[in-house]
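Subject: NAD-dependent epimerase/dehydratase family protein

B.,
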Amino acid sequence: MNRIELNNKTILITGSAGFIGSNLVLELLKVGEPKRIIGVDSINDYYDVSIKQWRLSNIENLVNKQDNIEYIFIEGNIADKELINRIFNSYKPDIVVNLAAQAGVRYSISNPDAYIESNIIGFYNILEACRHSYDNEQSGVKHLVYASSSSVYGTNKKVPYSTDDKVDNPVSLYAATKKSNELMAHAYSKLYNIPSTGLRFFTVYGPAGRPDMAYFGFTNKLLKGDTIEIFNYGNCKRDFTFIDDIVEGIKLVMQAPPEKKNGDDGLPIPPYAVYNIGNQNPENLLDFVDILQQELIRAKVLPANYDFEVHKKLVPMQPGDVPVTYADTSALERDFGFKPNTDLRTGLRKFAEW
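Prediction pasted inline below.
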């Protein structure tokens, strides 16, 4: 496997005010290796903008303590082709990590336009910019890493989910756009020899996460004393993956682009890979909420006498949801010697303390 050292590299991270993107920027600043980090984010109001601004302020605070890394933040939409081309032409990134996307399964049912704009057109713009980064014999982008999702597995019955499984039956537009990203990346890898790696994330959680995620909603309802609806009568299982594990996985993958080589026909074999990043340990949603309320009590967010039993209600499945997500991470472990290992209580404790 090829290795790219991060030192003295220019790294473009889209979605850099997002949950995963901002944590990746912080980690790269802490290790102090890249020469320059370019962050791009539209800071849209899909969820509370103040949490995005809080993440950006954390980055700024850390940048002010660094003297060896140039950090540039650009507010803009990856669906704006001129902007993306300008960024690539001005900064000539060595590594591109595309985390900008319209997220969420349920929102895609009521707001499909947002998914086509960001996840299809936006990703196309990134691919095209990567393609043209090689024009006029320039060295160009050495690795494109992009966010896919466990949603691509749809209602596959076989578990754990393997990247070798067929994923042709999405149950939401969000999942369909993520599968499309993988197909588009494969085509561009084949046609233009662009090393690309897709990462299928499994239910990422942690401090300052996405407020539209279930654990945030559960916390808000617990605080208000509202009833928590637990879907599929409590029988949903999710492979919850702590943010630090996700960031460590991305950082390792960034440094190892798929190898460029030609096949027997003399044409490039696509330098293309896809990995699952999950905890390989699905948790029952009912247990998840129970541990969450225990940790919120421990952190004194909830009162010591909080009665969880009277605040829960078991309800049927929602459209677009899947009953279980479960990652087979053997390929990640094989190629990088890494697998996520933060247990649920540890992760939820850090969230509750935050």
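The mean pLDDT is 92.

T.
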